[in-house]
Amino acid sequence: MQNCEYLFRIFSNEQWEIVKQKKELKLKEIETNFNFIHLCTEKQLLDTIRVHFKNIEEIVILRLSTRGLESNLKWEMSRNNDLFPHYYGDISFDNIIDFKKIKVNKNN
After folding, report:
1. What is the pLDDT of residues 69-82, one digit of tens each?
2. Which of 61, 63, 79, 86 has a CA between 20 and 30 Å from the CA of residue 95?
3. Looking at the domain assignment, is residue 108 inside a domain?
4. Does residue 1 fall inside a structural domain?
5. Given its phi and psi angles, is residue 68 left (phi above 0), alpha (psi -120 to 50 degrees) or beta?
6. Are 33 and 22 in contact (CB under 8 A)?
7. How many domains does the structure of the chain reveal?
8. Structure confidence at residue 107 (pLDDT)
C-alpha cells in the first residue's frame, strides 16, 4: 500500500455539476463499468489527464483526504504497470479537501 495523504479524482465539468448536487461520490453513478472509483496520486495526475481527458475542454480535479478511506482503498496494477488507488464504495464529500477547475490544453 502506498503512503499518500491525498488522492485525486478527475471529472469533466459536466460530470462534476451532477456529482456536486448529490454531495457524495457514488460508485454506481460515476463508475458504471467498474466496481470501484478510479483515483490517482499527484504523480499520476498529469498522465491521467493526458490519457483520459484529452478531448475535454474543462476538467475539475478533486483533492481527497485518504483519512477514513483506508478500509476500502486498494492499490492495483493499472496503466504502465503502475499501482493506482481504487476505492471500493462511495466517498463522502467530507473527504474533499478542495477542487480546481482547469482548462485542458488540447495541443498536448
Report:
1. 999 999 999 888 88
2. 79
3. no
4. no
5. left
6. no
7. 1
8. 58
Here the contacts of 43-47 (C-beta below 8 Å, separation 24 or greater) are 44/8, 44/82, 44/84, 45/8, 45/10, 47/79, 47/80
CB-side neighbour CA atoms (13 Å) of 74: 11
Assigned C-alpha cell, 83: 499501482
- Please report, as a single letter, which amino acid is at residue 31: E
* 87 close to 39: Cβ distance less than 8 angstroms: yes
Contact 89, 48 (CB under 8 A): no
CATH number of the domain within which 82 lies: 3.20.170.20
Q: In residues, how long is the chain? A: 108
Please report which helix (H) or strand (E) contains residue 27, including its range. Answer: helix 27-30
| Enclosing H/E stretch for 47 | helix 42-52
Q: What percent of the chain has pLDDT over 90?
A: 43
- Domain housing 72: 6-103
Report CA-CA distances (Å) from 102 to 12, 49, 96.
10, 11, 17
Global pTM?
0.87
pLDDT one-digit tens code per residue, 34-72:
789 999 999 999 999 998 888 888 999 999 999 989 999
